[in-house]
């Protein structure tokens, strides 16, 4: 069974985005100077794929990282987890801002891995530009089944079993392959640590790169992007210090006043 | 200029605020004119839903019912029914769905299915001539992108705007659907989770949240005790969910639930931009953190520089004694 995990990486959230903007004269984001890492959702998708591989010798895992050469270090980090194959798909000019175009490109990426995908895993958000559109868009564009925000995946008798939480209910869904599943983070899919020998092997191994097909002009154009300051909040900013008992007494009084006043 | 049409899936309690899309469409119409259509889709006609859509500013309401929909409805069935309803649409239209997992999946899939443009979860939308301009958060809420399209059909999800325009009154129409629904997708097995999530995050007046610094599930048990005393919901940061101390449904932030309580009690969390993006701007934040440099204090109405291990048990005791 062919399992493909699509990874995007994000700009390291610890780094300031002050230089973020568009490359002059283009609709491409200039963030290549900022360090990249896998997002928590990339990690959850990758771990899910690795668990499926570990559980079933018939599972073949291909990890695909989108992006340009600035992502090669990240690809080596992914390769250290020893998927059956790992390659980078794309170049610095590839943009995923237009979901319809992105879905076509991601479909091409999956086909570069296998002509018969059974399961495509993605994080619930794909990279810095996506808020959950790309996984269902890919499924719809390819005519594959879809399940969003799963936190556990199993394969049983050719079916895909998916656990997810929707509001106050837990759901178990069955999907027939091929299917796209977006993964959310949970304790059970925290990414393992790679073996040091595999890290060293991945550092020396060549990076496989697959070029994307030429994309048509996007229907949705990115016109501007910039870092934004934190939203202004009206808090009084009163910070208590001193003996904990006195702080707690003041907090209790604050809560009593707040809850009584609102009642 | 694009027409405005809110698509409202009914019958799924996990859709916290289905009529947010109507209110968002009404806010756009208040800025740039035009009528606000709302298409409500459920298993049976729902007079309360029609009234709610009218209150939120819909001027033309189509209430569509399909007896084949389950409760909660399956996404594939909603897609088929909405696709049927929109098949005859010819005018340029900006379709709006409520923010959240269900609305966002429907928006993305409908857009691709109907050869429209999916705009994602937008913070604002504007129409000018034949162009739609969308603003969207990126980079975990630390940046904002401006995108434009001239596509005739656009699909976006939005949260409820802060200010709602007056409702002008609506023309109403009800129809029964009998279009075929896919029968090759088995319904999910549903298990309702235990009491800890009985108080929903969305709509809660008080939210008690723990972060990475809670250092274990035991701390979250105490937070649940505190939440019970305050009739509050319990939330968690992404690292706390990652660690397994709280469930996926309790995650607050850019990638989790968006909450709009009066009071937000944040214990042992640093206050990253990604987390704060999940808290409404009108919420008063109370922060407890042993690190006086924690970012959360910059946005707090009241802050306690103290370890949660000392604060929470003492606070519970005092609240019980009142």
How would you explain this protein's 3D organization?
The complex is a heterodimer of chains A (263) and B (322). Chain A is of the alpha/beta class and 263 residues long. Chain A has a single domain, classed as Rossmann fold (3-Layer(aba) Sandwich), CATH 3.40.50. Helices cover 29% and strands 29% of the residues of chain A. In chain A, strands 11-10-9-12-8-1-6-7-13 form a 9-stranded mixed sheet, with helices on both faces. Chain B has 322 residues and is an alpha/beta fold. Chain B has helices at 20-32, 47-55, 75-86, 101-113, 217-230, 238-242, 273-276, 308-321, and strands spanning 3-9, 36-42, 60-66, 93-98, 117-128, 131-138, 143-149, 153-158, 171-177, 189-192, 206-210, 233-236, 263-267, 284-289, 302-305. Chain B has a 9-stranded mixed sheet with strand order 7-6-5-8-4-1-2-3-9, sandwiched between helices. Chain B has a 5-stranded parallel sheet with strand order 12-11-13-14-15. In chain B, helix 3 (75-86) packs across helix 4 and helix 5 packs parallel to helix 8 (308-321). The relative contact order of chain B is 0.12. Chains A and B meet through strand 2, helix 3, helix 4, strand 9 and strand 10 of A and helix 4, strand 5, strand 6, strand 7 and strand 10 of B. Strand 14 of chain A pairs antiparallel with strand 7 (143-149) of chain B.
Quick structural gist:
The complex is a heterodimer of chains A (263) and B (322). Chain A is built from six helices and 15 strands. Chain A is of the alpha/beta class and 263 residues long.
Blueprint of the fold:
The complex is a heterodimer of chains A (263) and B (322).
Chain A: E1 2-7, E2 10-11, E3 21-22, E4 29-30, E5 36-37, H1 40-55, E6 60-66, H2 72-79, E7 85-89, H3 99-113, E8 119-123, H4 134-142, E9 145-156, E10 159-166, E11 169-175, E12 179-183, H5 196-204, E13 209-210, E14 220-227, E15 238-240, H6 244-262
Parallel strand pairs in A: 1-6, 1-8, 6-7, 7-13, 8-12, 9-12
Antiparallel strand pairs in A: 2-5, 3-4, 9-10, 10-11
Helix pairs in contact in A: 2-5, 3-4
Chain B: E1 3-9, H1 20-32, E2 36-42, H2 47-55, E3 60-66, H3 75-86, E4 93-98, H4 101-113, E5 117-128, E6 131-138, E7 143-149, E8 153-158, E9 171-177, E10 189-192, E11 206-210, H5 217-230, E12 233-236, H6 238-242, E13 263-267, H7 273-276, E14 284-289, E15 302-305, H8 308-321
Parallel strand pairs in B: 1-2, 1-4, 2-3, 3-9, 4-8, 5-8, 11-12, 11-13, 13-14, 14-15
Antiparallel strand pairs in B: 5-6, 6-7
Helix pairs in contact in B: 3-4, 5-8
Keywords (chain A): Electron transport, Transport
Pfam families (chain A): ETF (PF01012)
Domain Electron transfer flavoprotein alpha/beta-subunit N-terminal (chain A): 26-219
């Amino acid at each position: 069974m062919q399992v493909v995990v699509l990874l995007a990486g994000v700009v390291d959230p610890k780094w300031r985005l002050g230089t973020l903007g568009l490359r002059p004269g283009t609709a491409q984001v200039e963030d290549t100077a900022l360090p990249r890492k896998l997002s928590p959702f990339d990690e959850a998708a990758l771990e899910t794929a690795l668990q499926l591989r570990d559980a079933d010798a018939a599972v073949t895992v291909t990890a695909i990282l989108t992006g340009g050469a600035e992502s090669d270090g990240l690809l080596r980090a992914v390769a250290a987890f020893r998927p059956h194959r790992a390659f980078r798909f794309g170049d610095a000019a590839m943009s995923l801002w237009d979901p319809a175009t992105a879905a076509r490109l991601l479909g091409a990426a999956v086909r570069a891995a296998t002509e018969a995908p059974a399961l495509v895993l993605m994080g619930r958000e794909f990279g810095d530009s996506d808020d959950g559109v790309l996984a269902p868009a890919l499924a719809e564009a390819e005519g594959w089944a879809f399940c969003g925000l799963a936190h556990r995946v199993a394969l049983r008798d050719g079916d895909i079993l998916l656990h997810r939480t929707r509001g106050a209910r837990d759901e178990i869904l069955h999907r027939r392959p091929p299917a796209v599943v977006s993964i959310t983070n949970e304790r059970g899919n925290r990414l393992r640590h790679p073996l040091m020998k595999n890290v060293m092997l991945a550092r020396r191994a060549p990076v496989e790169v697959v070029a994307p097909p030429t994309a048509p002009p996007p229907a949705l154009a990115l016109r501007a992007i910039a870092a934004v300051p934190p939203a202004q909040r009206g808090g009084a900013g009163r910070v208590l210090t001193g003996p904990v008992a006195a702080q707690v007494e003041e907090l209790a009084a604050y809560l009593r006043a707040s809850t009584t006043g609102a009642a | 200029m694009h027409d405005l049409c809110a698509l409202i899936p009914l019958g799924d309690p996990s859709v916290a605020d289905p009529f947010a899309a109507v209110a968002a469409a009404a806010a756009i119409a208040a800025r740039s004119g035009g009528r606000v259509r709302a298409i409500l889709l459920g298993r049976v006609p729902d007079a309360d839903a029609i009234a709610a859509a009218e209150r939120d500013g819909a001027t033309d309401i189509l209430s569509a019912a399909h007896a084949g929909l389950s409760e909660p409805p399956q996404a594939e069935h909603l897609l088929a029914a909405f696709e049927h309803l929109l098949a005859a649409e010819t005018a340029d239209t900006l379709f709006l769905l409520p923010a959240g997992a269900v609305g966002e999946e429907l928006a993305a899939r409908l857009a691709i299915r109907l050869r429209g443009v999916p705009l994602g979860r937008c913070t604002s939308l504007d129409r000018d001539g034949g162009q739609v301009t969308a603003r969207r958060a990126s980079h975990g809420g630390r940046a904002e992108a401006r995108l434009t399209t001239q596509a005739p059909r656009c699909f976006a999800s939005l949260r409820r705007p802060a200010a709602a325009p007056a409702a002008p009154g609506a023309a109403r129409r009800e129809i029964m659907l009998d279009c075929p629904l896919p029968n090759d997708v088995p319904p999910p097995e549903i298990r309702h989770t235990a009491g800890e999530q009985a108080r929903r995050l969305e709509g809660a007046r008080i939210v008690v949240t723990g972060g990475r610094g809670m250092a274990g599930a035991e701390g979250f048990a105490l937070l649940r005790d505190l939440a019970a005393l305050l009739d509050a919901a319990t939330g968690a940061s992404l690292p706390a969910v990652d660690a397994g101390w709280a469930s996926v449904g309790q995650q607050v932030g850019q990638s989790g639930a968006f909450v709009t309580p009066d009071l937000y009690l944040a214990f042992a969390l640093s206050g990253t931009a990604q987390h704060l993006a999940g808290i409404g701007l009108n919420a008063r934040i109370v922060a407890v953190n042993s690190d006086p440099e924690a970012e959360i204090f910059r946005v707090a109405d009241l802050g306690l520089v103290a370890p949660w291990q000392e604060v929470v048990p003492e606070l519970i005791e005092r609240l019980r004694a009142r």
